Amino acid sequence: QVQLVESGGGLVQAGGSLRLSCAASGIIFSINDMGWYRQAPGKQRELVAAITSSGSTNYADSVKGRFTISRGNAKNTVYLQMNRLKPEDTAVYYCNADLVAYSLGRSTGYWGQGTQVTVSS
Question: pLDDT by residue (tens digit) across 24-77?
Fold first, then answer.
């Protein structure tokens, strides 16, 4: 089955940096959009950054200039470089991919398990 595996979360002081990674595994025909979402306690899940197969990117206003999303060249992988982190960035971060699994034959959204990012003051 298709699975998204995340890594890189943790605890960091304000002003520090973290790099999140997400790799899609399984029998995948193609991957379209990939992105990162986050959800703080009591709040809706929100888009942080997204990237298309052609390299077009989109960022939430709150992270522009601080976060950078990128994709591996020959791997089903997406990264999120997070710099100048703020306490407001504290949330569970989720990897998302719109992809076509070989067994399914149509584009479907998949989610990672989520990884905690905590930024202390």
Answer: 999 898 888 999 999 999 999 999 999 998 899 999 999 999 999 999 876 689
C-alpha to C-alpha distances, 18 to 98, 107, 119, nearest whole angstrom: 24, 30, 10
- Partners of residue 41 on adjacent β-strands: none
| Coil, helix or strand at residue 87 | helix
- 33-to-63, 64, 115, 117 alpha-carbon distances in Å: 19, 19, 20, 23
Q: Is the pLDDT of residue 12 over 70?
A: yes
List the structure tokens of 105.
Answer: 């034959």
Neighbouring C-beta atoms of residue 74, cutoff 10 Å? 5
Rg (C-alpha) for the chain, rounded Å, is 14
Report d(CA 52, CA 117) in Å as an integer: 24
pLDDT of residue 53: 87
CA torsion angle 18 13 89 50 (round to 10): -10
